[in-house]
Amino acid sequence: MTAAGRPDRDASQRDGLSIGAVLAQLRGDFPDVTISKIRFLEAEGLVQPGRTPSGYRQFAPADVERLRFVLSAQRDHYLPLKVIKEQLDAADQGAAPSAVGPKPPRKLVSLEAPGENGGLPSPGDFETDRELRLTEEDLLRQAGIDAATLAELRQYGLVRPGVAGFFDPDAVLVAKTVKAMTEFGIEPRHLRAFRAAADREVGLLEQIVTPVYRHRDEDAQARGDEVVRELAALTVALHTLLVKAGIRAVTGG
């Protein structure tokens, strides 16, 4: 108790970290994480912090490690929460986790760094800062392409500047990916179907996530973000499986 007879919150949190302290620790590696996001992950059973007699959350170091693993698995591997939870549960029970995605170590720390695959974007690289604005010169330099290639990317809708004429970081990742594909003889004009398919998927997913974002409670944004991540992960997985199945059918493999 304080001198004024009020409960000493610092004393009640002495054996664990408050949610605000956890947020401060995570923000350096995960700038987009919020208190609502942490609460959402708790509600989904990914982390189970203790509680003080007054009801305040107490996060142990192991809880913070679990949160880091979850956030890394989403960012770097685009895994759905269901898969991440299965891996965590398997690790908790001492069983061998699934071979899909990252393997949770006994001490859950960071996973492989994004961009290790020769500088090409991995799914986690798509967690970018939407506020960062790039000029055309910035895009050309960072993506390692020339103006003619950029003109083709714009012509076929693969890269689109914003209303102010600036590009976002995703445009760099798209340009790098297309550049890598050109080494296999694929040209930007061949990728128009990818743009059309992506636009159709956006229209479908928008119908699902918009109602979630419109809820008025404080966790609506976090829930909406999670729905987007889950659907994006499932979309990537489905696309990959369909392409693999199609190639097997063609090659007889």
TrEMBL record:
Keywords: DNA-binding
GO MF, one example: DNA binding
Start and end residues of each stretch annotated as Disordered: 94-127
CDD domains from the UniProt entry: HTH_MerR-like (cd00592)
Residue ranges of domain HTH merR-type in the record: 32-90
Entries under InterPro entries matching the protein: DNA-bd_dom_put_sf (IPR009061), MerR-type_HTH_dom (IPR000551), MerR_fam (IPR047057)
PANTHER family tied to this protein: HTH MERR-TYPE DOMAIN-CONTAINING PROTEIN, REDOX-CYCLING DRUG-SENSING TRANSCRIPTIONAL ACTIVATOR SOXR
Protein name (Swiss-Prot/TrEMBL): MerR family transcriptional regulator
Source species of the chain: Amycolatopsis regifaucium
Upper lineage: Bacteria, Bacillati, Actinomycetota, Actinomycetes, Pseudonocardiales
